[in-house]
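Work package 3, deliverable 3.1, input record:
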Amino acid sequence: MKSLLTFPKGGVHPPESKAQTAGLAIEIMPVPEELEIILGQHIGAPCTPTVAKRAEVAEGAVIGEVIKGLGVPLHAPAAGKVKDLGTSAHPVRVSAPSLTLTVDREAPAVHYKKEDWRPLDAAELLARVHAGGIIGIGGAGFPTHVKLKPPSDSPVDILVLNGAECEPYITADHRAMLEYSAEIVEGAKIILKILGIKECHIGIENNKPDAISAMAKAVEQTAGPDVSIRVRTLQVKYPQGSEKQLIQAVTGRKVPAMALPSAVGVVVHNVSTAKAIYDAVVYRKPLYEKVITVAGKGISRPANLQVKVGTKLKDIVDYLGGVKPGLTKIVLGGPMMGFAVSSLEVPVTKTTSAVLFLTEEEVDTRPHSPCIRCGWCIEACPMGLEPKEIGIYVEANRAEDTEQFGVFDCFECGSCAFVCPAKRPLVQFVRLAKMKAKRRQ
Amino acid sequence: MALIIVEGLEVNEEALRRVVSKEQALDDQAAAPAAMWKVSTSPHLKSSESVEKIMWTVVACLVPPLILSVFIFGIQTLLITAVSVVSCVAVEALSQKALGRTVTIKDGSAVLTGMLMAFVIPPGVSPLLPILAAVFAIYIGKHLLGGIGYNFFNPALLGRAFLLASFPVAMTSAWLPPVEGFAIFSFFGNAVDAVSTATPLAVLKEHGMAAFTQTFGSGTNLYGSFFFGWRPGCIGETSGFLLLLGGLYLLYRGYITWHIPVSLLTTIGLLTWIFGGAGYFGGDPLLALLSGGAILGAFYMATDYVTSPSNKSAKIVFGISVGAMTVLIRQKGGYPEGICYAILLMNPLSTVLDSWFKPKRFAPPAGGAK
């Protein structure tokens, strides 16, 4: 057994809680009657609708484009009629511009034809990635075609595929690696060709041995002699799947603060994004479906579901047999970095990886108390910061003065707040500090 | 992994503040008439550790040395400790009520202070002393400075320093020799001065090594009886063995780190070896560690979260400084034992040390400090 790769500083071990759904195959959820498609799915400029109210659209048709700025087109997840161009409930922004689609359930299913991608050149492959509306679906939502065109002054030589899935509960990437192993490897080869490089590492945490062997087998069968693709086993430690920590674990390189991975010659993509790239290039199928994990003790039937982008949480709840008594919190995303939502009207977006229905016993809602300066947050911080100081400064109304503690290095993984014995909302303090410090700049 | 970017979002600051101050259920929002779920910021999982758990675990580690003290000095150690604990808890509750704060006596912090304060008091003093010390340590030393997390002196040691200044005779002479056999109730039949004796460090300081050997013996017997606690001293400081056992347990649980105890004890041993005897390199480091309050101080007092540094390298500097100052007071100062004042003198410097010795950042920005 090789020694397991990991990042050296900080990190925590929250309960993994993946057993509920790890063994469940991806299940395709029937299309609900109505979809609510948020126009700003990615980081950058939101899409402007290209269809009018009451227009009929086909499955996969473009329904939104970015007019100015950074972004990718948006596609109709199903055939139907545009009911409204209004606003939707949003997990963070409370409400956001959206397109409501009444689904035509009689419409025939769309069949995408498989094409050989090998004769295509890098520019054409990149164009297909853009046309497919691909963004980083691991959670960040950064337009993928931009990451595939690294700045010319920092050449890239390594591709890292992120299969760590270090957030508790979530098993969507785990299932994708088991069920779409070959597609992911093929997707990696497409990315390598676009970048014009040969080396790829697929990082997977050690708690998914079946995914590790499935991916290794797929690499053996499909990688071919032209590229070097290696499956790398990672230690189970949160936040192993964070971009900078993953790069350090796999390549030993350290991405400086405020810099992109390309500064050290690395590009990172999620394994599920690689699968989406494969679909967009080989089948010309745009990204409008998403595999999500629905788990927690508050949902009647936990599952790994393939849903249409725009599916509302209430439809998912109905499909899975309703919520269970004791439900305390609904979280979009993982329990360490996800957002608690207060409404089931919130729709799934391209970046949703999970919907968690957590009961009182699963979440900690104890009130917080003053900092006792135990320093556990300092030990837990993977970025070498002092979260306690940031919290104390924010409480003392000196949030603007927290830049000295490197508050902008913080990517809000929540390790500090997880270990804090005083249950202090340290991530909240950091967000407040960033906001105030930025305002002063 | 879900990476959530908050940049560029217009978030209502007031709403954020409210969530910071208290988790609240948002009900009856326009979009969700029936929603009764809690919303708060990530992370939604927290470890099972808590301030209470830490405090009560440390208290539990102090119970075996307390029980042993009954067999060493007699049942009155239990009485003094009980008075100390009850008065600390009472003063904490009253202070918090008087200052309009939430009463948090259940968190075990006052109980711990009460126990530690009794541990550094001679066993022959009047039980009234810990009551006065509790008022000073908890009300003035802790709550007037802002309550838990904001006091910059170790409350238990502050209580001892207060007593040492106010009752110098009792605090430096009410020592008891270890009882013979199981005569643990003998104290109540005798007057205090009839049984008083001197601590090993006092004998060593005032009468020298020869007198020390005559009083306490030498060799393995001496180290053995000192290690297990059979010597005059403060109530809880004598049993190096049990204190060490508890300290190791706290290390194992991750409640304390090795940095302060190891650097502190090493410094005391090393400096005593160099400067503690006739000429240089003639001191007895083991004796220095076993005959005073070094082990109690190193594992339970100097590691107090609030009043010691949080950064690893700052902790080592803190430990070395406390150790050096302890030896300085023992060798050159007016008191036989110096660890109490050494810790108290270093306590307020903790935050300064933390700001001098920062943790290493992952990778600072390429263009210099930001």
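Confidence is low (pLDDT under 50) at residues 1-34 of chain B.
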